[in-house]
Amino acid sequence: MYFQNRAEAGRLLSKLLKKYANQDVVVYALPRGGVVTGVEVAKFLHAPLDLIITRKIGHPYQSEYAIAAIAEDGHLIGKQNELDSVDPQWLKQEIANQRKEAKRRRETYLAGLSTIPVEGKTAILVDDGVATGLTMRVAIKELRHRKPAKIVVAVPIVPERTAKVLMEETDELIALDIPRERNFLGAIGSYYENFFPVEDDEVISLMKSYSARNGATSIHQNENAEVHADPILFAFPAYTYISKPLSALPDVIKGRFQARRFPNGELHLDLDSFRPEEDCVIIGTIAPPEKNLFSILLLAHTLKKERARKVTAILPYLSYSRQDRSEPGKSFATPLIGRLLKIAGVDEVLTVDVHSLESLTLFPVPLRSLSPATIFADEIIRLGMDDATILAPDEGALPRVKDVAARIGPEAQIASMRKKRSNGGISHSDISGTIGKRVVIIDDILDTGSTLISCCKVLCSHGVGEIVIMVTHGLFTGQEWKELWDLNVKFIYCTDTLPPESYPVSKNIRLLSIIALLTEEIRKAESTRFLSAEEEEEEAYDYDLSPW
Hints:
Layout lengths: L5 H11 L8 E5 L3 H13 L3 E3 L2 E6 L2 E10 L4 E3 L1 H5 L3 H23 L11 E5 L7 H11 L5 E8 L2 H10 L2 E6 L22 H14 L18 E4 L4 H8 L5 E2 L1 E6 L5 E6 L6 E5 L7 H15 L4 E5 L18 H12 L3 E5 L5 H5 L4 E4 L2 H10 L6 E4 L5 H11 L4 E10 L2 E8 L5 E9 L3 H12 L4 E9 L14 E7 L13 E4 L2 H14 L4 H6 L10
Parallel strand pairs: 1-2, 1-6, 6-7, 7-8, 9-10, 9-13, 13-14, 14-15, 15-16, 17-18, 17-20, 20-21, 21-22, 22-23
Antiparallel strand pairs: 3-4, 4-5, 11-12, 18-19
């Protein structure tokens, strides 16, 4: 029998345990992989979930070969002849080391909370599979001392020889597959399509997620506790630099998924450890290539299909937002993108510095745009350029400039230029405000750089000796933008709305983090726990979507 992943194995295993549903049971998972399976079992049984933390003791000359296993309370199981063959002092020290590691894991995974009382109850021990049975046997031994009425071992896969041993040491063994010894593939991972390693942060997230949703059935909640779901964060690999610090927040759970392709090239996604009725947050991009857009759509649709309560898409750079005008014979992509996101199941989009306010009215779902003004103002002050002129390269950028200047202080000097487009390209004229010897240009996008190049040429003609450019989104398309270095531009600052590896390598191009912006927004969402259905109805946007 083969399983797609540990979560699927847990769901299949749960069906064999249905007689224990809503009974006086406690589910114990063996970290780390067993927690993924155990969460599914506990959820199905509506049971509290705890951990039994065991550690293998490897041979001193071949650590991968286990000679024994030890539990948190010091119970040890191993082959006596192998234990006698190693140095007693080494064994004593190794036992102490592994007990210390088990204690660390309990404190890490459960924040030091005590175990769930199981005396007189049924204890169900769950792992993602059993091979030799050492860790499961020592877990059984430890549980016996807690005086449960019954111990049930539940695993997806266990070889026949090990199964016979476990049946002698436990009250009941339930398994999806018990292959004969000659048919056993030798490794539990061979029975899984996806058997990637489970890290500490995933165990923490799973335990926190389960406990936050199950009130009295959880070791983290008392009987009368009010349950609030923490958001589950699903991030595409390129955005790990953002998702990692956000996942570390106390009220955020890390979600996992895999994006792969069938042999014919079709993209498909697999969720792991997902539970329905959760608020989900996706971090990624819809920027070209277009596969990024479809990946976001497919993930959002899959989450909603699995009954996610709310899906928020964090798209730090909202591409296609410059196609926000309906002009004859030209694509009008902004509302189309918004419509696609809505159809896929996205309930809200969070971005940084959207290109124009038109997007806010063209999107059929709420679109929130975070201002990077504080990030830019702080850096300007740090550079000692708070006396420089803060310049808008066109009228559209003027609100951004005013926002930054307001955060610098009343002494900040602002100016703006008028930009013109013609068949000959971009040109600037009509400077409003006083231009000093040092200028900081604020804009939302550096694409090819043509707008900024034209602007800097005018500044140089007015005797400006030092220019710093600050843009929210650094696309750096083509080579034309490099001309900026010949126009008294000292530094180009960009926020990291795009993955850092996408930026040109240069000591004069510097990235500013948006983590603080997103952290503040997520904490704000946690404090309000999103709008109620009634409030959402009252604040619903009224869009004319007739063209779509």
